[in-house]
Design goal:
By secondary structure, the chain is an alpha+beta fold. The protein folds into two domains: 54 residues; 108 residues, Methane Monooxygenase Hydroxylase, Chain G, domain 1 (Up-down Bundle), CATH 1.20.58. A five-stranded antiparallel sheet has the order 4-3-2-1-5. The chain is globular.
Length: 173
């Protein structure tokens, strides 16, 4: 099981990127039961504090992508398969799983699917569904937050960085 250090930036499902501020026993009872916790601060909410048991496998924390891993993911975006699902109920389930999986590639797959669905619906004179819009925003936020942290860029610039990179690589082909 991965042990993290104070100062590590980790990705937490649904929350996104957090910095580990401390590893401690929040209460005397926890100390008695030898239950250590990570005290984490989400990078998007300086005031919030999250306690996650060190021993918990269900927390599904992982170290943030490195700069090289972030560029590798961006390079692979065109090849990452779209998580296509025609069944409405299954689709929302797939969205939830991708967000909870804490896997940047799964986020790319659902962002691509929702984008394609949105284009198709717009071409038919329909609007994007509320579920699609919500998960698109959540998935983009989590992905861009992590890529931004890895590349040292504000989250708002990440989409432009990806589009520029993919356009440049297409021009080379």
């Amino acid at each position: 099981m991965q042990k993290y250090e104070v100062g590590d930036f980790v990705s937490k499902p649904v929350t996104g990127i957090c910095e580990i501020e401390d590893i401690l026993y929040p209460s005397p009872q926890d100390e008695k039961n030898d239950k250590l916790y990570y005290l984490m601060k989400p990078i998007e909410d300086e005031k919030e504090k999250i306690y996650v048991p060190v021993s918990s496998q269900v927390s599904r924390l992982r170290l943030c992508l490195t700069k090289d891993e972030a560029w590798d993911l961006i390079e692979r975006i065109p090849e990452i398969p779209t998580a296509w699902t025609d069944n409405e109920k299954m689709r929302e389930q797939k969205y939830k799983e991708a967000v909870k999986a804490n896997d940047p590639e799964a986020l790319v797959a659902i962002i691509k699917m929702i984008y394609q669905r949105k284009q198709k619906r717009l071409s038919q004179g329909k609007k994007c569904t509320a579920t699609d819009a919500r998960y698109f925003q959540v998935a983009e936020n989590l992905l861009y937050m992590e890529l931004g942290a890895a590349l040292g860029k504000p989250k708002q610039e990440v989409c432009e960085t990806i589009v520029d990179y993919i356009n440049k690589s297409r021009q080379k082909d």
